[in-house]
Amino acid sequence: MIIRNKRMALSLCFCMLLALLPALGFAEAKVEVEAMAAAVPNPWKQQNIGSPALAGSASYDAELDQFTVSGAGTDIWGKSDQFHYVYQPWTGDGAIIALISSQTHSHDFAKAGIMIRESLNANSKHVDLLVTPSNGFTFQYRTETGGTSQSVKIASTSPAWVKLERKGDVIKGYVSNNGLNWGDLGNLTLKMKATLYVGVAVTSHNASSLSTATFDKVKVNATGDVFPPTEPTNLQANLVTDTTVKLSWTASLDDIGVKGYDLYKNNVLVKANVQDTTYTFTGLTPDTTYQFTVKAKDAAGNISNFSSPLTVNTTNQTDTQAPTAPTGLVSPSKTSSSVQLSWTASTDNVSVYAYDVYVNGTIAGSTPATSFHVTGLTANTSYSFTVKARDLAGNISTASKSLSVKTSPTSADPYTPQVVANNLETPWAVDFAPDGRIFFTERNSGKVRVLVNGKLQATPVITLGSPFYYMPKSEGGLLGLVLDPQFSTNHYMYIYHTYKTSDNKVANQVVRLKENNNIATVDKVLITNLPGAVYHNGGRLKIGPDNKLYFANGNYGNKDDTLTYLGGKIFRLNLDGTIPSDNPFASSPIYSRGHRNPQGLAWQPGTNRLFSSEHGESSKDEINYIQPGHHYGWPKFEGGNQQQPGITPPLIYASGTTWAPSGMTFVTKGPWAGNLLVTNLKGKQIIRMLIGEQNGQPTIKSSDLTYLFVNKYGRIRDIVEAPDGSLYVATSNNGDKNGDGTPDKLIRLVPNF
After folding, report:
1. pLDDT surpassing 60 at residue 556
2. Does residue 228 lie within any of the structural domains?
3. pTM to 2 decimals?
4. Which domain holds residue 244?
5. 28 within domain boundaries
6. pLDDT digits (tens, 9 = 90+) for 631-649
7. Rounded to an integer, what distance in angstroms lies between the CA atom of residue 591 and that of residue 43?
8. For burial by CB atoms within 10 Å, which of 446, 568, 629, 634 has the most?
9. 177/262 same-domain check
10. Is 695 exposed, middle or buried (0-12, 13-18, 19+ CB in 10 A)?
């Protein structure tokens, strides 16, 4: 009690001292500034800029790593600013990053964000990236002391990540929905003093009211891997028995890369560092409820939040019944070192989990599909193959009938060409079903075609009707095609095609089809009214390693590269057509911009880097490394003229010649593994490109290009690597505007390795 009374007495004395300070000659404003300064940690300071009518304040919660900043004032705008600033001195290059997690609505143009400022005067030069309650983001700047502010705006709302990056006199602004994938919002070349002030700012746009914002995880000049991955999503149970549960989830994202996943059962870590996005829990108790969660982690040890929990109840009966034996084992293809196998699915009282493939009585691998590619075999040698089915309870079927296959003799060439379909009408895109079927589009006819067991079926999978549109000798029609990763169960396929709008304009759209027994119907239009024209419709359609739908559109005859115009862009959607929350531009399907006519998309194995091919003007065709939110130059810059602020230059471009590059694929097997293959229309060839590495970025040198099949097949539109290591090539000579009318082919390059 004595100690408590002493504390109360000291507090009373301190309060009396504060009351006497003005009489002793100390200004009240001085007391206020010192009290505010104590509310934020070193090296941070805070100050009202421009003498707003209401003083602002700021505090810091170390446990949450969160600043709470209240500010008033007329605006950060015009020739003089009024706001509250939490800042620190800053010298040299670097970046400030923050998550604006909340903002109160004192006015539609209240502002909260990050700022780089030359001085603490109200009329100082500055660059800032701010968000408003109702009018989205603004990248603002004042280039002269006492000058008038300018801005670039984009519609979006908080919470969102913001970043200002300074390199020399160039300052760039970025926004992100997850702090990992950044989209550029603006850039500026502005010469300022060497020592600046960097921090977070809040203004109310209302002289008589405060606005309050919270800023999480504010970092200045952050180095190394400081951000954890996003939490895994879409956790679900695919198969459940009395003792097992098979889980799957959507992959997490990380600015460097996800190292693995930790799996928890009833809040206890059961399995660490799972590399895949599926896992089967075994040894469970029948008729019991379990809760499962997953965390992601990166190589630096940063760990994500938990996924949403999933509650699963195991069945109450023990599964002792084995699946039936697989039947119909055949070998559709072989090489000197590999054999492709396929078979008819087994049945089971619960469900078949996997198939075990045996070579000469020794297990060679397992697969959930009804096909398997056996590799590492010896040339000109006979092998005996069998397959067994297995369920989640561990019951194994009897073996299928054995199949004897003799591998091919050794060949000096990596591949042997084999025409698998002829007399086609401008084939454009190719993709493969898990059961071995090969689907492709015919641009001019509006048909999706299919090969079953290597034979082209006479009946199209679908022939598009109205509003599908194709003009002879144009570049529109039925273009891209890709199958859903879960095609074996949902039978979805996605196409990109040109159509006529109700007011008779040319446009493009992405449509989801539903396939059943080689016949498809239109299921859903995912995105429509993409700009279209006679030429430069883009059209390539792929699904990335993140299970998102990527597609490209051209910018023919239009010089608009803004985010409100959808031409000249690469897009990214969820497979249901919604916009991913982690797209670089909030609430926008745009993934990158500044493209003239991109026609190829491919991801580099091992890095998941996205590459694209793009038609240039007067040659200058490009191969680009696509990064979210980046600008690739068109219409102002192309080819070698792209070393500009805010512009990402190509990895390589055609100089003095014309490729007209189209489809592309990375090779994953054989002597060309890791190489990028790019088809050429005007060049009438395939270019094999070696990908280098320098300073953590991919490179392509002109000395590392090899030209294949020059003038052998004419114009080549697409190339795709099949699961068995074959390469499928589509020509584009019949009905193309620059074609010679010779029949088009689908060619299989059969591996000899």
Report:
1. yes
2. no
3. 0.54
4. 233-313
5. yes
6. 999 998 888 888 888 999 9
7. 37
8. 568
9. no
10. exposed
